Amino acid sequence: MPDVTSALEDYALIGDHQTAALIGRDGSLDWLCLPRFDSPACFAALLGGLDQGHWRLAPAGAGACTRRAYLEDSLILESVWETAGGTVKVIDFMPQRDRAPDVVRIVEGVRGRVEMLGVLRLRFDYGRVVPWVRRSDSHHVAVAGPDSVWLRSDPAVHTYGQDFSTRSEFTVSAGDKVAFVLTWHPSHEPRPRQIDPYEALDHSLKGWRAWAARCRYQGPHRDAVVRSLITLKALTYAPTGGIVAAPTTSLPERLGGVRNWDYRYCWLRDSTLTLSALLLAGYREEAAAWRDWLLRAIAGDPAELQIMYGLGGERRIHEYELPWLPGYADSAPVRVGNGAVGQRQLDVYGEVMDSFHLARGSGLPAEPHAWQIQRAMMDFLESAWQDPDEGLWEIRGPRRHFVHSKVMAWVAADRAVRALEAHPELPGDIDRWRVMRETVHREVCEKGYDDTRSTFTQSYGSAELDAATLLIPRVGFLPADDPRVIGTIDAVRRELSHDGLIRRYTTDGDHGGDDGGNVDGLPGSEGAFLVCSFWLADALMLAGRRQEAETLFQRLLSLRNDVGLLSEEYDPKSGRLLGNFPQAFSHIGLVRTALTLAEDRRAD
Ligand SMILES: OC[C@H]1O[C@H](O[C@H]2O[C@H](CO)[C@@H](O)[C@H](O)[C@H]2O)[C@H](O)[C@@H](O)[C@@H]1O
């Protein structure tokens, strides 16, 4: 069996707001966790090879499709193959879930006659368990442990078992339609209710059209912005309002490297930034759902606040490895869970306070106990902001006094003060928070700024730089035309740029070493971190350097794959996307920069 999974940029995303799948240009569905984003994958070819589970549906003997695109502003993928015998298209989507998750694949003959081949290789528990498959009426059902998957196809399709896979052979002529519906269900329950795939298609398309029409942004990059917003919406777990950082685990930050992490959880940082992007683009319902998720998740002692939670607000996200999976492009280990869950990352308080501030300012109906939680968080932060932490990059080395964490402590105090200024009826000690705001500001400017190089540094007393300091003007810590901000923009550009794109900080691997002595405690290097380049574009724009910002934004747009998706990082040397895919952070960056550019134009 040829064991080739696709390049990352060859994948498109489909999903049902509870989980999501990746489908390659060759028609192979190589990643899907069922029933939730954080469940074990039943198709894990992405992290190994075809034997770890995949579902290919394409013309027999064909390679990559000739072209593909999402249907209008939707998450419904259409892949077209032009073959010698004719033209065929495959439409892939996951309908909005009623009870059970479904993947629908509709084959449509367009011209001539095309022989099709489907190969369904189910492997439960991240590629480890080969299920028993049997026929039951019009279905094939695969069962192992708690999982069962039902495959329904048209009667005209010849389906048989071979090499621990279920194969389907059929021919389509112009005008023919053949639908497959794959449904997951707990194995102890009777067969799930069947859906009509064509009705589901119609319903999904209408639903996405209506959703996309609510986007307030009308600027020149509307298609890119809407695609990013659809991607962010696809990363939202509808039953609770939680938002995952990405639907994948362990896509490497360097091919063949060990920087491989599980992103199928809700980070307060990534989610608050997603919420801001959605809110600014006009999506208040999602923002309200997420705010409610947040209030439930963080309820309790603010000292016990975690930096990430499970989809439902679960607290235990213990990290472990899956040794039987070779990893994407042999990048091991594959990890499930995330050890960063136990870290102290003080920036999170600032991000949460800022998102409540934005929600209040956007007229989102007030939630009575939100302020109570904010006050408790401020009480805690007043006593903790002077401590070292692991920072927003979740370093696995020793704690440090990260400048970005302190700046975000300033943001927390600032938003608390501004809330009381706007709503004097709320209880709280405005004078104390003003003092805290002032103290943090003074300390950061004294200890986190390097006069000789005219730049903010990564941490107090360090010579290293950090792309997160580009956020200083955006959060309002200093104006964009302050010489210290200008100096930081130029220093970050000079020292952290990789072919014009920005790394988050330097690693020893960047200088050829691989000894694990990095600030982040990890061996090797990584690519340019895409959201940092969007932050640079924002900072340039705020500083009045619009041409440079526009040029950088255009470059970033060109890094999206053919269906508009970005992963976490990019390697300018090989021209490859790296890291988990698609990643909320990068798409948030795209939306925010497009909005900032549009505002700047209006101001002209
Ligand atoms: O670089 C090491 C860390 O990498 C991951 O963190 C990154 O992803 C998070 C989710 O998008 C983001 O919030 C964080 O800012 C990024 O640094 C990983 O989750 C960590 O476990 C790992 O230590």
Protein described:
This protein is α+β, with helices and mostly antiparallel strands. It folds into 2 domains: 8-210, Beta-galactosidase, Chain A, domain 5; 214-603, Glycosyltransferase (Alpha/alpha barrel), CATH 1.50.10.10. The chain is 32% helix and 22% strand. It contains 14 helices and 28 strands. It has a 15-stranded antiparallel beta sheet that branches. Bound molecules: the ligand OC[C@H]1O[C@H](O[C@H]2O[C@H](CO)[C@@H](O)[C@H](O)[C@H]2O)[C@H](O)[C@@H](O)[C@@H]1O. The ligand OC[C@H]1O[C@H](O[C@H]2O[C@H](CO)[C@@H](O)[C@H](O)[C@H]2O)[C@H](O)[C@@H](O)[C@@H]1O is lined by residues 245, 261, 263, 267, 269-270, 338-340, 392-394, 396, 520, 585.
Structural domains: how many: 2
What distance separates the N and C termini?
60 Å
Sum up the overall morphology in one term. Answer: globular
CATH class of the largest domain: Mainly Alpha
Low-confidence stretches: none
CATH T-level topology of the largest domain: Glycosyltransferase
User: Hetero groups bound?
Assistant: the ligand OC[C@H]1O[C@H](O[C@H]2O[C@H](CO)[C@@H](O)[C@H](O)[C@H]2O)[C@H](O)[C@@H](O)[C@@H]1O
> What is the structural class?
alpha+beta
Mean pLDDT: 94
| CA-atom Rg in angstroms | 25 Å
What percentage of amino acids are in beta strands?
Answer: 15-25%
Count of helix runs:
14
The appropriate CATH architecture of the largest domain is: Alpha/alpha barrel
Give helix % range: 25-40%
Largest sheet: 15 strands, antiparallel
Number of strands: 28
Family: Belongs to the glycosyl hydrolase 15 family.
GO biological process, one term: trehalose catabolic process
GO molecular function: alpha,alpha-trehalase activity
Pfam family, one: Glyco_hydro_15
